[in-house]
Design goal:
single chain; about 180 residues; alpha+beta; eight-stranded mixed β-sheet; 5 helices; 8 strands; binds coenzyme A
Length: about 180
Amino acid sequence: MYPINRSSARLTLRELDVEDVDAVLAIYGSPEATEHLSFEPRSREQVGQIVARSITAAGETPRTEYALAVVEQTTATLVGFGRLALDPHQQRGATLGFALRPEVWGVGYGVELVQLLLSVGFDDLQLHRIWGARSPLNEASAKTMATVGMVEEGIIREHVLKAGQWRDSVVHAILDREWRATSAA
Ligand SMILES: CC(C)(COP(=O)(O)OP(=O)(O)OC[C@H]1O[C@@H](n2cnc3c(N)ncnc32)[C@H](O)[C@@H]1OP(=O)(O)O)[C@@H](O)C(=O)NCCC(=O)NCCS
């Protein structure tokens, strides 16, 4: 499906553009924003490659990756990054990823962003199951996913190699019927 364009009360999810590299770097290059992510802060060159790859992936058929810009409507600036990646090992399943610039944390955008991603996954792409993996120390992510109705399912042991150390991941997931029940309520 292309293009994706979905809005909530304060945020819009849209396709990435080559002009977005510096705004994405403010997230993926930030030690604070990447503290609990699976990778070290990225360089500008790496972010440029990620944005270029994402734009290419958006044009593929079938499309299996949805790497999207999160735009704050009042300022029209990119404040976050959201991603759904269709799981090749599971029918109608996908993993999700999300991150916001530290300057906009704490005002409810995290919940709004994950709800938008779930809405794309379930309402636009008709997925059955969406899951995310977080660091055991990532309390903000745990609460964000719990608030939108994602159930904590368990631990993937030594899932991520970061700075030479293996790290566990905690899995949170939501099914289409759970999403519909949450949306209806
Ligand atoms: C995770 C992230 C998106 C949350 O964004 P946010 O806009 O600050 O979150 P919200 O304001 O919507 O808050 C969501 C919930 O998390 C809680 N929360 C936010 N920051 C928290 C923190 N540092 N510690 C504990 N709880 C926190 C809020 O109180 C809220 O809980 P509630 O729903 O029970 O009231 C943001 O911290 C971020 O971008 N982090 C870096 C990237 C990242 O870790 N991504 C997740 C990868 S799995």
